[in-house]
Each structure stands twice: as C-alpha cells, then as structure tokens.
C-alpha cells in the first residue's frame, strides 16, 4: 500500500473532513486534499492525480453517489478506488452504490480500524 | 374549484329545495345524514379558522428551527475545540516514552471516532427541520382552504434536478432500522 497516494476526502461537514484527515494521518497518509461536495470533488479529481476517493453520500448540489457515477463514466478516472463513508445504511443505498461501482462502503459512525481495513482492501485491488 | 365542504353544503341545499311530496324512509335518513355532515363540516371550518396558525408560522416554527441551528453551531464549536485538544496531544505523543505514547495515541483515535457524532446529529437535526417546515406548509394550506386570512407559503422550488443519489439520501436511520458494518460487508460480498 503506497502511503504517498494522493487521497481526496469529500464531505460537507468540516468536522468530518478534519476527523478523516486526522485518522488518515495516523495511518501515515499525509497527501490528503478535501472537497465539500461532489461537484468540487469532480473538479479536483479531473485536475489532479488522486489514487483514492473517500466520499460522503448526502451532499448538495452533487451527492456522493452522483459523484461516483461521474467518476466511473470518466475514461481517466473510471478505475479510481472509491470508498463511500456515509450514514446512509439502507440496503437499497448499498446496492445502488455497488451497482454504480463503489469499491467499498463504510457506515457512519465508524472506527479507525474499519477505515484502515477498507483502505487496505481497495488499494490492494487498485 | 369549490372545496369539498362547500360542495357538500351545496348538495344539501339542492336536495332540500328539490324535495317535492313525501320522502321515503331511506331518503329521510339520507337527508338527515347529509345535514349532520354539513353541520360537522361547518363546525370544523370554524375551529380551524379559530386556530392561531399565524403563531405557528411566525413564532413557533422559526424559534424551533433557530434553536436547532444553535444546537448544531454549539456542537460544531465544541467538537472543534475537542479536535484542537486532540491534535495538541497527538503532537506531544512522539516526545513521550513508547508505552504512554501509545496510550495517548489510542485515546486520541477513540476521541476522533466519537467526534463523528456531530455529523450524525447534524443530519438528524436537518431531518427534523425539514419535517417542521413540511408541517408548517401543510397547516397553512389547510387554513387557507378554510378562509383563513394568511396566505399559504410558497411551495419549495427545486433548484437542482432529482438524481438517484438525492432520491436515496435519507440521512441516518433509527438504530433499529440501520444496517451494521458487518451486514453491509456481507451484502457487498454477495455481489462478488
């Protein structure tokens, strides 16, 4: 697992961005950028060179699921590992995310070990 | 378009004025029921008109939403204070001997995990505010139909198109209805 991977975290709650950034720092991931919704994330992803996206679902104007679909429809980004981290825990949400091509799915509230485990899993398959 | 109550009253009046000769027992019964229904509707109209709906719209609901916004602001502020402290502790950890350093780091990690409550409560409060506004809108429409002076609030205008992501964005579930991480992992594995 390359600890120098550029990671984009996407969440409309600044506190959550800060928590995930700090947890990533504990896992030795220091190349972390942030976006506050799907639209801003898409702009950053298209302009940058990221190796992993960790995104919330419930954001305006572009949700995490819609961001995921845009990523999978983009020729350059389509294989980008994408972890959804969300409070949306209904089966239909998980199924929709999987069908849209999510790499893994973490339900909030989560712990650091779960985040680590899912990152390791998607990075191995990247 | 006439409202249901007005239509019923109109029908009763029409039936009464169209009566010629003796009524059958069934017609008498029906007429009695219609008159009773008309009376009930008139009473309901009076009671609804007498409600202080303006207070709900102008005071109760704005105060409730302001209070909830304040709860969000205070918890965000407190959470950021906690995170500030954690970051300071974390920066000190490398200067500590190995064992206490590990204890500090573990404790800080657990505090980070716990602080995600602010996101979850924020989403729950947003759901409550949406519900309050929906109640307000429906109350105003009901009172407007019954001749209340206050106009109904404008329907919310959708500024962005509905997408699957937005349609499925319902926020946190109640604990009894929420899937656990293990259940989600199992569901994801079933696709492989």
From TrEMBL, chain B:
Q: Which InterPro entries match?
A: Chemotax_Pase_CheZ (IPR007439)
What the entry lists under Gene3D superfamilies is as follows: Helix hairpin bin
An example GO biological process term is: regulation of chemotaxis
- Cross-referenced Pfam families: CheZ (PF04344)
Q: Which GO terms describe its cellular component?
A: bacterial-type flagellum
Residues annotated as coiled-coil are: none
The molecular function terms of the Gene Ontology recorded here are: catalytic activity
Q: Where is this region: Disordered?
A: 150-181
Name of the protein: Uncharacterized protein
């Amino acid at each position: 697992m390359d600890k120098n991977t550029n990671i984009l975290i996407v969440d409309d709650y600044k506190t959550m961005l800060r928590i995930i950034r700090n947890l990533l720092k504990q896992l030795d991931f220091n190349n972390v950028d942030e976006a506050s919704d799907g639209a801003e994330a898409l702009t950053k992803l298209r302009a940058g060179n990221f190796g992993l996206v960790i995104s919330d679902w419930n954001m305006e104007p572009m949700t995490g699921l819609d961001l995921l679909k845009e990523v999978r429809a983009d020729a350059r980004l389509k294989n980008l590992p994408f972890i959804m981290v969300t409070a949306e825990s209904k089966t239909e949400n998980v199924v929709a995310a999987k069908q849209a091509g999510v790499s893994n799915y973490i339900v909030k509230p989560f712990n650091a070990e779960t985040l680590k485990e899912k990152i390791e899993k998607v990075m191995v398959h990247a | 378009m006439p409202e249901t109550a007005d239509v019923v009253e109109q029908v009763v009046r029409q039936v009464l004025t169209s009566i010629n000769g003796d009524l059958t027992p069934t017609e008498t019964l029906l007429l009695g029921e219609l008159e009773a229904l008309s009376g009930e509707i008139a009473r309901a109209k009076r009671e609804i008109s007498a409600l202080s709906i303006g207070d709900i719209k102008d005071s109760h609901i704005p105060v409730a939403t302001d209070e909830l916004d304040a709860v969000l602001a205070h918890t965000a502020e407190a959470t950021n204070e906690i995170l500030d402290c954690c970051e300071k502790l974390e920066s000190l950890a490398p200067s500590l001997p190995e064992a206490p350093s590990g204890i500090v780091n573990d404790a800080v990690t657990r505090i980070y995990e716990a602080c995600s409550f602010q996101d979850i409560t924020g989403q729950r409060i947003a759901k409550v505010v949406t519900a309050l506004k929906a109640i307000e809108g429906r109350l105003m429409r009901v009172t407007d139909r019954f001749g209340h002076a206050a106009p109904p609030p404008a329907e919310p205008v959708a500024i962005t198109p509905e997408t699957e992501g937005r349609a499925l964005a319902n926020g946190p579930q109640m604990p009894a209805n929420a899937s656990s991480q293990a259940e989600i992992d199992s569901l994801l594995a079933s696709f492989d």
